[in-house]
Design the sequence.
């Protein structure tokens, strides 16, 4: 018997689609017949722990706190690298010291940027 | 099918059921074995409720350990504790926001009657004045075993629900109330003091 080799693919496709859609359709049928929708003003209202919602949900949040996270990172990394640097300071070759100074300069640069931006003044 | 024929067939080893029985079995057993409570405690009874959900008493055995923080996903409201008159509208509102079918367990003396605060001016004398309570648990507070017993009682109640006919449950009734009216603060008390459709003051009968 001759048949198109793609017939199997078509059958698989139909079974796959049916496998997904039949349960969804059954659930939909059951929901329509057996779970009566009783919408209402309170039921459709926004859930806020039983209270009535105040104001609107889509409002702007100020993202100022990321700046504090950046300053924390500056000091945190500085401490992390400066302590081992201080301990091993006497045995270090000149190249390592210069590399460390460049790194500290980068971190200080970040601090200066934050200072200029006025973040260090706590409002 | 005739009852005599059914018993005659069952003697021969042929068991017959109605389609309705199969549907009801599937519907009821799937609901009763996955009751998700609303994560919601009002007073000291809530501590017992928390203990019930923990390892020692293990509410998970009944498929009910998934305490939901949103009423949209909850089937059961456990009113665990004192319902003050200030809190009563919120409790009713939360109940209204739960999808059907929904059940209520009134846990402890306060939730069922006002308990030790019954004489007080600010405590609701039973949450069943505003929402339909399925199971009442006495106790101050009830032991976790009592809450487990209430769960099993509720499961037995759910198991007896019918899908069709005159005595089908409230959530299958097209005309039944979907939302219960919220009490408001009045001049002296909450208005109305109770919902006439779910509660009536007990009448004294003299003989």
Sequence:
């Amino acid at each position: 018997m001759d048949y198109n080799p793609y017939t199997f693919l078509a059958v698989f496709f139909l079974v796959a689609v049916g496998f997904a859609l039949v349960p969804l359709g059954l659930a939909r049928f059951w929901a329509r017949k057996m779970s009566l929708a009783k919408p209402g003003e309170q039921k459709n209202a926004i859930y806020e722990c039983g209270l009535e919602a105040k104001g609107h949900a889509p409002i702007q949040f100020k993202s100022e706190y990321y700046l504090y996270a950046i300053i924390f990172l500056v000091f945190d990394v500085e401490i992390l690298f400066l302590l081992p640097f201080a301990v091993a300071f006497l045995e270090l070759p000149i190249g390592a010291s210069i590399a460390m100074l460049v790194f500290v300069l980068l971190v200080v640069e970040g601090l200066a940027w934050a200072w200029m931006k006025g973040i260090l003044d706590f409002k | 099918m005739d009852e005599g024929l059914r018993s005659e067939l069952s003697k021969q080893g042929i068991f017959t059921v109605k389609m309705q029985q199969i549907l009801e079995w599937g519907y009821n057993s799937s609901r009763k074995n996955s009751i998700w409570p609303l994560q919601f405690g009002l007073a000291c009874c809530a501590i017992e409720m928390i203990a019930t959900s923990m390892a020692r008493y293990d509410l998970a055995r009944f498929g009910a350990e998934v305490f939901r923080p949103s009423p949209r996903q909850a089937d059961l409201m456990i009113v665990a504790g004192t319902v003050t008159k200030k809190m009563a509208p919120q409790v009713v509102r939360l109940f209204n926001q739960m999808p059907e079918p929904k059940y209520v367990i009134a846990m402890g003396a306060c939730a069922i009657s006002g308990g030790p605060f019954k004489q007080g001016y600010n405590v609701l004398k039973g949450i069943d004045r505003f929402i339909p309570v399925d199971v009442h648990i006495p106790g101050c507070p009830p032991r976790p075993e009592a809450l487990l017993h209430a769960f099993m009682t509720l499961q037995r109640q759910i198991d007896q629900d019918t899908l069709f006919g005159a005595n089908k449950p409230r959530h299958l009734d097209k005309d039944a109330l979907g939302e219960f009216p919220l009490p408001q603060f009045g001049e002296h008390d909450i208005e109305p003091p109770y919902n006439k459709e779910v509660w009536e003051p007990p009448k004294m009968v003299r003989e």
In short: Chain A has a mean pLDDT of 86. Helices of chain A lie at 6-34, 65-87, 94-117. Chain A touches chain B through 14 residues (CB under 8 Å).
